[in-house]
Amino acid sequence: QKEVEQDPGPLSVPEGAIVSLNCTYSNSAFQYFMWYRQYSRKGPELLMYTYSSGNKEDGRFTAQVDKSSKYISLFIRDSQPSDSATYLCAIQIGDTPLVFGKGTRLSVIA
Amino acid sequence: GAVVSQHPSWVICKSGTSVKIECRSLDFQATTMFWYRQFPKKSLMLMATSNEGSKATYEQGVEKDKFLINHASLTLSTLTVTSAHPEDSSFYICSARNAGGNQPQHFGDGTRLSIL
Fold this sequence. Notes:
heterodimer; A: 110 residues; mainly beta; 5-stranded antiparallel beta sheet; 55% strand; B: 116 residues; 4-stranded antiparallel beta sheet; globular
């Protein structure tokens, strides 16, 4: 079983839709949870960073962590064509290297 | 805040040459920097972790003599691909983490390396 599983998509939604991106992980020791957005030929950009169960909101983005289920989600409200990118979940134990999901390719169609 | 600058963004060179890539944290001090390699439509693969003032820690399968890493200051790390060959062509991305505890990694914009 891989440490983190992420559906690679691709996921295509109409503009204005709510997008739900998800990752599951196997090791309950993971402490830190991140979502990065990566545009083509660019480096990943940090969107959300959290370390506790529950929701964290930033503008149109909401990160959700459920440690009991080992499940993390990123919700994007009112999606825009500019949100079209690959979204990577990343999890971490202490100072150990990040463990990345495979990334989900999202296309928001105008 | 938390800006990481990577240079150059794109380099093309002949087989056998060495290429240096710079990674700078612009507005924070980074005791730890990371170097990744990314193949098309794949996730990031960690190559090495570098700590300021000490030798880098390489991941299994990464040749330390091929990929030289220097982390000479709290804001600069360099990756030198020595005697590059076409199979070294890839997208290389650095990231840096603030010296404070429990800080996330911030990434540069990557360097596209093409070896002819």
